[in-house]
UniProtKB/TrEMBL annotation:
Reaction(s) catalysed (UniProt annotation): a 1,2-diacyl-sn-glycero-3-phospho-(1D-myo-inositol) + ATP = a 1,2-diacyl-sn-glycero-3-phospho-(1D-myo-inositol-3-phosphate) + ADP + H(+)
A single MF term (Gene Ontology): ATP binding
Domain (C2): residue spans on this chain: 694-823
Residues covered by the PX domain: 555-671
Entry's Gene Ontology BP terms: cell migration; phosphatidylinositol 3-kinase/protein kinase B signal transduction; phosphatidylinositol-mediated signaling
Gene Ontology cellular-component terms listed: cytoplasm; phosphatidylinositol 3-kinase complex; plasma membrane
Protein name: phosphatidylinositol 3-kinase
Domain of life of the organism encoding this protein: Eukaryota
Taxonomic lineage from the root: Eukaryota, Metazoa, Ecdysozoa, Nematoda, Chromadorea
Chain ranges of the PIK helical domain: 1-154
Enzyme Commission number(s) from the entry: 2.7.1.137
UniProt source species: Onchocerca flexuosa
Length: 830
């Protein structure tokens, strides 16, 4: 603020006492802080309406050092929920840095929280330990040490024993990590890890320990067989701890500063809390991370004295795979295949109910992480730090590059899109539709934009958190980072304008080829270091790449005969073969759909397992020319039938093997073939619109500013467009403001191609002189199909909206009239 603005704000301070957000600004505008001025300032605190917990946090920033103001902030903060306080604990510990004295109201309040909830005591202890280990400012480090001692004195002896056991656990893990690194080759490293973890398992069995990462989990031992190390630079170790009723897997890493990861995960959790508070559940997977300093493993004994720059413990999410692992199942070119991710979800969710839930999880969590990674400027995104769980949840790991610190290679920026949203992700969201967008994609865009606008609305929570941490010494966390996030939130735009901008970012990310080229480069590097990946989906001779687990004759019943009934074109260019499966004692035959490549995989793996079995080859007569034409498919159908006839007449060891019964096990595509068949989907969409006479509709939002005379027309989604000449239209929207004899009021959106449900999310502007102009004016909105180079554009449908409707709408607090909703499109122009 300028000096004049500060002076005006201070003079009018008594008119602002009912506006909580104004208090920090008024206090920052105070004429002076001498003893004569304090009476007026303190009186303001008593007169002001109570601040929320988020607003009170701002008064703990360093530019409010006054003890009374900070004490008042703590009194308001006491009304916050325990979850909010627990999530904000790192910032409250950081705020101790700005207190004048050790026995501050904040320090006393933190001790009070510890006395009432042991969860706070463990978290506060380790947050203080980080500052003791890593802070270069002696006065603050000593203050943290003093408060840590008070925590130990305040709680009972059992708490002290738990803390001592946690320190000993960290000492032991440091020693194990060091021994593994020094072991040399891979085989020795694994043996060293297992030997040391077996010794640690015996010690934990004798003295159970609560994990610093999750104190509610009482560790009773280590599952040595499930523990291993990762072949990266720092050689992090995966440890599966055993509990009384469950297990808990963590990644322990020595050599990386984990404070960035912990901070990013805290910010993402704050974002998720904002969304959940507004009833937007994006199914986010938030995992725990706790960094440790140089001395955390030395507090009890010098026996395991290990020096390291930094270390930390991260919770491992179960049942997940990286995009690289999913894509490389068919080799390096898998990064360019759109259907692999969808097939992977189908494989791990065989029932229709499970699959639908997985798709919903994918769509929602993908939207959440798109927004989060954009706002925080997360860089170095590739297919090895984006993961998907078997239940469809997307999440990111490894946050070493953030706040716009983009990854470069040979001087070129590798992160060239606002966030990672590739066509294989869109393919999952569209459920394999051949069209570029469906109603599901429109919901995805809506959720992204809604999540983004909610963060803009609650930006002060994120900004205050970052301001509090700007003095923490964490790399990249400074006032420039705060400005970066504020800039990314587009705070100077309206919600509608922000929606338009974020939609353009989605389109930019989806159209860009650079992410997948980056994925390819990373996959090739991984394949060089992991040769088994070169085998692709045929790597495991005992499993099929498209079925999650093995099934036997006992599971599904004995197969007596299998008949290849026909072939269908499901994908471009792949065809699927429809096979009738007859089983013993079953009157109804089962139907499965398998591709030629999947039959070939079965053939190869049967030959590998049973090398003396003489099965007829599948490639007979199909080696020359195009492999996807109808004649080839007909020859292949005959070859496949001959192969099946010989297979089921063969020795039971082969015919009844688990590979064969797994191949014919009913999977999701068999129970719901219409979900996977692109061409059937397109025909269903076309027939559905024709038979049910679905009305074409368009979402519009008209906003009229009475003061400035601005009329803004927001064009959102369109639904129910008809198929034109056998294909989905390439559509755009055109508007006129009538009467307009010279047709100078024409406005147009961009063209959205190949979809019956386009998303425009574009704002068109008109300038009106006064309300009088609204009475006799009307807005014409029409949807057009963009013709070919030689063809003409044709109108699909239109709607007329008399602007006098705006006259009856009350203005909001900003003086704006809003008319929005879905409008039916009539055929042709009026």
């Amino acid at each position: 603020m300028t000096e004049d603005e500060k002076e005006t704000l201070w003079e009018k301070r008594h008119y602002l006492t009912q506006i909580p957000d104004a208090l920090p600004l008024v206090l920052a505008s105070a004429v002076g802080w001498d003893w004569a001025s304090l009476t007026n300032i303190y009186q303001l605190l008593d007169d002001w309406i109570p601040l929320s917990s988020v607003q009170a946090i701002e008064l703990l920033l360093p530019h409010f050092p006054d003890i009374t103001i900070r004490s008042k902030a703590i009194s308001w903060l006491k009304n916050a929920s325990s979850d909010f306080l627990f999530n904000f604990l790192p910032e409250l510990v950081e705020a101790l840095r700005f207190e004048t004295f050790e026995d501050s109201s904040l320090a006393v309040y933190l001790l009070t929280l510890c006395a009432g909830d042991r969860r706070f005591a463990f978290e506060l202890y380790w947050q203080l330990q980080q500052r003791i280990d890593q802070c270069e400012e002696k006065s603050y480090s000593n203050r943290c040490r003093l408060l840590q001692q008070q925590v130990l004195k305040l709680l009972d002896e059992e708490f002290g024993i738990d803390i001592e056991n946690q320190h000993r656990l960290l000492q032991a893990l440091n020693a194990v990590s060091c021994e593994v690194k020094d072991a040399g080759d891979a085989s020795k490293m694994q043996l060293t890890l297992q030997r040391h973890l077996a010794l640690l398992d015996a010690r934990i069995l004798e003295n159970n320990v609560r994990l610093p990462l999750l104190p509610s989990f009482l560790c009773t031992g280590i599952n040595v067989s499930e523990s291993n190390y990762f072949n990266s630079l720092t050689k992090p170790i995966k440890i599966t701890f055993k509990g009384l009723k469950s297990s808990f897997a963590v990644l322990y890493k020595v050599g990386d500063d984990m404070r960035q990861d912990a901070l990013v995960l805290q910010l993402v959790k704050m974002m998720n809390d904002i969304w959940l508070s507004q009833e937007l559940d994006l199914r986010m997977v938030i995992f725990r991370c706790i960094p440790f300093g140089n001395k955390s493993g030395m507090a009890i004994s010098l026996l395991f004295l290990i020096w390291s720059y930094s270390k930390g413990m991260v919770e491992l999410v179960s049942d997940c795979r990286t995009l690289c692992e999913i894509q490389s199942a068919v080799g390096a070119t898998g990064v360019f295949k759109d259907d692999l991710l969808k097939k992977w979800l189908e494989m791990h969710n065989p029932s229709e109910f499970q699959y639908k839930i997985a798709l919903e999880n994918f769509h929602l969590s993908c939207a959440g992480w798109c927004v989060a990674t954009y706002v925080l400027g997360i860089g170095d995104r590739h297919n090895d730090n984006i993961l998907v769980t078997r239940t469809g949840h997307v999440f990111h790991i490894d946050f070493g590059k953030y706040m716009g610190d983009w990854q470069t290679a040979a001087g070129f920026r590798r992160d060239r899109t606002p966030f990672i949203f590739t066509s294989d992700m869109a393919y999952v969201i569209n459920e394999g539709s051949p069209q570029s967008a469906t109603s599901r994609y429109q919901h995805f865009v809506d959720n992204c934009c809604k999540a983004f606008n909610l963060l803009r609305k609650k930006y002060s929570l994120l900004v205050n958190l970052m301001k509090m941490m700007s003095c923490s010494g964490i790399a990249g966390m400074n006032l420039e980072a705060v400005n970066f996030v504020q800039s990314n939130l587009l705070l100077n735009l309206t919600d509608t304008q922000a929606t338009v901008q974020f939609t353009r970012m989605i389109e930019e990310s989806l159209k860009s080829k650079f992410p997948r080229l980056n994925f390819l480069a990373h996959t090739l590097v991984q394949m060089r270091s992991t040769p088994s990946m070169l085998l692709g989906g045929y790597g495991d001779p005992n499993k099929l790449s498209f079925v999650q687990q093995l099934y036997t004759m006992k599971d599904d019943g004995r197969i007596t005969r299998a008949v290849v009934l026909a072939f269908e074109k499901w994908h471009i260019p792949e065809k699927m073969y429809k096979v009738e499966v007859n089983r013993e004692n079953e009157t109804v035959c089962g139907i499965v759909y398998r591709s030629f490549m999947e039959f070939n995989e079965l053939y190869i793996k049967l030959c590998r397992r049973f090398p003396f079995a003489h099965l007829p080859p599948l490639s007979q007569g199909t080696n020359v020319g195009r492999s996807n034409i109808r004649k080839v498919a007909e020859r292949r159908q005959a070859d496949l039938q001959q192969f099946l006839n010989v297979l089921f007449e063969y020795h039971p060891e082969v015919a009844s093997s688990d590979l064969v019964y797994t191949f014919f096990h009913i999977i999701f595509r068999d129970s719901a073939p219409e979900e996977s068949n692109q061409f059937l989907q397109l025909k269903v969409d076309e027939d559905d619109i024709a038979s049910k006479k679905i009305t074409c509709r368009i979402f519009l939002r008209l906003t009229y500013d009475q003061q400035d005379g601005d009329l803004n027309v927001f064009v959102g989604h369109v639904r129910g467009l008809k198929i034109i000449n056998g294909q989905a239209p390439d559509s755009y929207v055109k508007t006129y403001l009538h009467p307009d004899p010279q047709r100078i009021s024409k406005r147009k959106t961009h063209v959205v191609r190949n979809t019956q449900m386009p998303t425009f999310n574009e704002e068109l502007n008109y300038q009106l002189l006064s309300d009088i102009n609204l009475v006799d004016r009307a807005l014409e909105i029409s949807v057009w199909n963009c013709g070919s180079l030689v063809g003409e554009n044709s109108v699909i449908g239109s709607v007329h909206i008399p602007l006098r409707k705006l006259l009856d709408i009350p203005v909001d607090r900003k003086g704006i009239k809003i008319l929005d909703g879905w409008f039916n499109l009539s055929t042709g122009l009026r």
